[in-house]
Design a protein that fits this description.
heterotrimer, A: 280 residues, mainly alpha, MetI-like fold, 2 domains, 0% strand, C: alpha/beta, five-stranded mixed beta sheet, 45% helix, globular
């Protein structure tokens, strides 16, 4: 390879790098703008020119959002629902994935196809009957009601099955020789070998549930039972011009997940790719 | 041996039961029910009279259903392929970076994805606000006319498409990056020795090796975007929801705003069938396309 | 009075007035009152709770106005999760009764509240009555008015000697005022909520009323020349847009912000924005402002009005205990009788005694626009009418394109007619 060729490649490579970085900054700009606007007084946000930094920095919208709305209650609801869904989904999927991977039983193939096929089912189409069901069970306006239709994530079973499939057969045979029961094998051998997968899958399930909008929006009619994403758009408080205050509520709603992501970036990245069936 | 197998089946039943119970309760049963009430004039809660295919035949002449179907298709067109391309380009750019810089740049692209849709809505509604939005100030500076983006029929869907790509691209970028990392560097080194240009390298090596990921991203996007509701609902508030109607929104409007469970279910069934058919078709098509390579 | 009625009255008396040591009754309350309305209602609720300390406590929540509120009410009533009391638009009562969302208020209830038809104007009483039965206690009447920035009008030479805008008597006159404002450098002579067809229904319906037009005659929509009258009404606003005299694609908060920041010189909006102005003015953050009855664009003055009322939801599968119901009745009664403070939110109280009080008569700016009470028109009494009802829904779809110059008024009217008659 000639030197000139190499230089030209370096030049264009540099251009692409610079463009990527510029695009990234532009990409994140709306987030910056949302945060900055929430730190300005209301009469400042509607000024007819661009003001990249507040003239008067104020945190009053945050105190208003925290004290005058029920955002704290919504946080508690969101956390309870997200934790509940995560624990139940991971537990049931893990058991089912293990059975599919390690045991021979009648109907195994059928179950596998059922799970694969459910990828195609749009849960959004089922909202009417989810509402009817939840109401019949008396679970409207309860954490359990918000959780119920969110408990199925077939992809998690599939990922578990794939990982359990990869555990060398020797482990299982050795355990069976020791007369260990299936539960012991699962919890003492297979699960510890796949802790990373469990953490990753828990992270994605948590994010999915935390961000869910449509179902929590439909199944809750009382403000004190709303989750954060629903609450900040459905409840209006008594103020005239309220752009900055709304943005403050938005920042409060987005902050926990954003911070969690920045702290555990590598783990989240791994979790997301895993949830699409790709091993990162 | 025989006892062993029976024991296996028993254990399996116990392991599978919790999942299966939930699956039947929140997947199978509601699906059956949905088909059932779509043939009645039931309200949201309560039962109704059997009306046969009425709820379906009237969809044919229902202008709002037509708007909803068209907008849904339009939205898919606007987001699925463009979203995949944008994510691929960004992934190619990011994959050139190293270490902490890569992590930082990737974080900027990925952050929107982990935000709840309502946060995305509030931020963009503010950016695009016709009177005070920063984008309008930029247009003013460029000497262009302001555009009431979320308030006109022509701009609404494209704008929601852009916001959706902005919001969800992070996910696809991660998948593409994982795919790019999986390509052995030796192949690129060999190409470099052959003096292959940037484009040739991409076309001959990267693209074919990345194909499984590309088709995966495409599939995930397609199925997700057919089910669009949240963004359209939020951005239409205080505006013109009937012009921006999409299928899930129409189900919501009929069932939860107009208390017509039966008519809503007919729309839901249509959507259901549509998604299943599209998924199957697409699966076959991508398999064919992949097989040709 | 029946035995049951007496019993109820007795319960109200015990709870409401004697304040006997008894379990405090919590009344779950939903409203959709934002802006200055919200601030004032919160104060009234606090006052109520203080006055009934230990006996009744209102637990209030404010939800997003309009479609979101009514969708929540409807679904929650269907599953027995509705509140004990809620604010309701009188215009929507026919629809609510048809859907079975509201409980009837019986003669005993009215006796218990110490209110009767004699306390309300006939039109207001009629607005909460369906087939001889009452479904809500009217709190107020709230028309729309024209807000104006006196400083800007004065600069443009368009303020008359009484401090009102010139040209309020004709289409040409008012258009000339708008044009003069434009020429004096005002960005938006008129701020209108042009992005929200639901909102514009009020202005357009007023303009139809000014031509003696009706939306519904003998169950048919826009029959005869009513279609042409709607087209006229839309035409006026569309022309203002074309001439650059009106803000386009403006949503509700933006309209208020344009007016309060001085970018729009006038604004057509509900009286409920009066407190926003009063409060800003008190903080020294607002110009000199005023509010008057809508200009007479056509043949005679007419202004659209609706009424906020209190209603009890019909919770499916749940019977409201007598003690709870008595507490709810006491809330409604108290709110009606103490609605003078509510008038500071710009509204005209529904309770006749309050309107007749000297305090109310002296209240500004209510006094300036009180003349319009004679010219108020209400929604057609149909289950299709009302805030976020089917008529609102259909019309709003076509208003936005028409008011912003995307669609021809005549074409819009044709489509509206077709869709409405297909309902």
């Amino acid at each position: 390879m000639t030197t000139i060729h190499l230089q030209r490649a370096n030049f264009w490579g540099g251009v692409i790098t610079v463009l990527t970085i510029l695009l990234a900054l532009l990409w994140a700009f709306p987030l910056y703008w949302g945060v900055i606007s929430s730190l300005k007084p209301e009469d400042e946000v509607v000024r007819p020119y661009i003001e990249l930094w507040p003239e008067t920095l104020t945190f009053s919208h945050y105190t208003t959002a925290i004290y005058d709305t029920q955002i704290v209650t919504w946080y508690i609801n969101s956390i309870a629902v997200a934790v509940g869904v995560t624990v139940i989904t991971i537990a049931t999927s893990m058991l089912c994935g293990y059975a599919l991977s390690q045991l021979k039983f009648p109907g195994r193939k059928a179950l596998w196809w059922l799970i694969l096929a459910s990828f195609m089912v749009p849960t959004q189409a089922l909202i009417i009957n989810h509402f009817v069901l939840t109401s019949q069970l008396g679970l409207i306006n309860t954490w359990a009601g918000i959780m119920l239709p969110q408990l199925i994530h077939p992809v998690i079973i599939i990922v578990y099955k794939q990982f359990f499939d990869q555990v060398p057969k020797d482990f299982r045979e050795a355990a069976v020789m020791d007369n260990a029961g299936e539960f012991r094998i699962l919890f003492k051998v297979y699960l510890p070998m796949n802790w990373g997968v469990t953490t990753a899958l828990s992270i994605v399930t948590f994010i999915w549930t935390w961000n869910a909008f449509l179902w929590p929006f439909l199944s809750v009619t009382k403000t004190e039972m709303m989750t954060v994403p629903v609450g900040i758009t459905q409840v209006n408080d008594a103020f005239g011009v309220y752009y900055a205050r709304q943005l403050a509520a938005a920042v409060l709603a987005g902050l926990p997940v954003a911070v969690a992501y920045l702290l555990f970036q590598r783990k989240v990245t791994e979790a997301i790719t895993l949830s699409a069936g790709i091993k990162g | 041996m025989l006892t062993n197998r029976r024991k296996d089946a028993l254990v399996a039943a116990v392991l599978v039961a919790p999942f299966l119970a939930i699956y039947l309760l929140v997947f199978v049963w509601p699906t059956i029910q949905m088909f059932g009430i779509s043939f009645t004039d039931a309200p949201l809660i309560g039962s109704g009279e059997w009306v046969g295919l009425d709820n379906y035949t009237r969809l044919d002449t229902d202008p709002r259903f037509r708007t909803a179907a068209w907008n849904t298709a339009y939205f898919v067109l606007l987001t699925v392929l463009p979203g995949t391309i944008v994510a691929l380009l960004i992934a190619l750019g990011v994959s050139r970076l190293k270490g902490r810089l890569q992590a930082a740049i990737l974080a900027l692209f990925f952050l929107p994805y982990i935000l709840p849709v309502s946060v995305v809505y509030l931020i963009w509604d503010w950016v695009l606000n016709f009177q005070f939005g920063i984008l309008m100030h930029v247009l003013d500076l460029l000497g262009l006319d302001r555009i009431p983006i979320m308030k006109t029929r022509d701009w609404f869907m494209p704008a929601v498409g852009v916001v959706t790509i902005w919001w969800t691209a992070g996910f696809s970028i991660l998948l593409f990056l994982a795919g790019l990392r999986a390509i052995p560097p030796e192949i690129y080194e060999a190409a470099a020795l052959d003096n292959a240009g940037r484009w040739t390298t991409f076309r001959r090596i990267t693209w074919p090796l990345l194909w499984p990921v590309t088709s995966l991203v495409f599939t995930i996007q397609l199925i997700a975007q057919l089910k669009i509701f949240d963004q359209v609902y939020l951005f239409s508030q205080g505006g013109r929801p009937n012009d921006n109607m999409v299928l899930v929104y129409y189900v919501f409007q009929r069932a939860f705003q107009q208390d017509q469970g039966g008519r809503a279910a007919a729309v839901a069934v249509t959507l259901f069938v549509l998604v299943v058919v599209v998924s199957v078709l697409q699966f076959q098509l991508l398999r064919l396309a992949g097989g040709r390579k | 009075m029946t035995v049951r009625g007496m019993l109820k009255t007795a319960i109200v008396a015990t709870i409401g007035f004697a304040g006997v040591a008894q379990a405090e009754e919590t009344v779950v309350w939903w409203d959709f009152l934002g802006g200055g309305d919200g601030v004032r209602m919160k104060k009234m609720i606090e006052d109520f709770n203080t006055a009934h300390s230990g006996a009744i406590k209102i637990d209030a929540t404010t939800l997003e106005w309009g479609t979101p509120f009514y969708a929540k009410v409807q679904t929650s009533a269907a599953v027995g999760e509705a509140p004990d009391i809620m604010t309701y638009h009188a215009s929507r009562i026919p629809l609510a009764v048809k859907q079975g969302v509201l409980q009837e208020l019986t003669a005993d209830d009215w006796t218990a509240m110490g209110l009767s038809s004699a306390d309300f104007a006939p039109a207001t009483w009629d607005a909460v009555t369906m087939e001889g039965k009452q479904y809500a206690v009217p709190l107020d009447t709230h028309p729309i008015v024209l807000y104006y920035n006196k400083d800007l009008l004065e600069k443009a030479g368009m303020l008359d000697e009484t401090g009102k805008p010139k040209g309020l008597d004709s289409r040409d006159g008012f258009t000339a005022t708008l044009q003069a404002l434009k020429d004096s450098g005002v960005k938006f002579p008129l701020g209108s909520v042009t992005a929200d067809g639901n909102f514009m229904f009020r202005t357009i319906y007023s303009l139809m009323g000014q031509q003696n037009g009706a939306l519904m005659t003998d169950g048919e929509f826009l029959a005869g020349d009513n279609g042409a009258k709607l087209a006229n009404a839309l035409g006026v606003l569309a022309d203002w847009t074309k001439a650059g005299l009106q803000s386009t694609y403006t949503d509700y908060p933006a309209t208020v912000a344009l007016f309060t920041s001085g970018e729009a010189a006038m604004m057509i909006n509900g009286v409920w924005e009066v407190p926003t102005m009063t409060d800003l003015n008190a903080q020294g953050k607002l110009f000199n402002w005023g509010a008057v009855e809508l200009p007479v664009i056509f043949d005679k003055p007419a202004t659209y009005a609706d009424s906020h009322a209190f209603a009890i939801p019909a919770n499916q599968g749940k019977e409201m205990p007598a003690a709870k119901r008595a507490a709810v009745l006491e809330v409604m009664s108290w709110m009606s009788k103490n609605s003078l403070f509510w008038a500071t939110a710009g509204h005209i109280p529904a309770n006749g005694a309050v309107v007749a009080s000297p305090d109310y008569i002296a209240m500004e700016p209510n006094a300036t626009y009180s003349s319009l009470t004679a010219n108020m028109i209400f929604d057609p009494k149909s289950p299709l009418a009302g805030v976020a009802g089917p008529i609102f829904d259909v019309m709003s779809t076509y208003f936005v394109p028409t008011l912003n110059g995307e669609m021809d008024p005549a074409e819009a009217v044709e489509s509206i007619k077709e869709e409405l008659n297909a309902l």
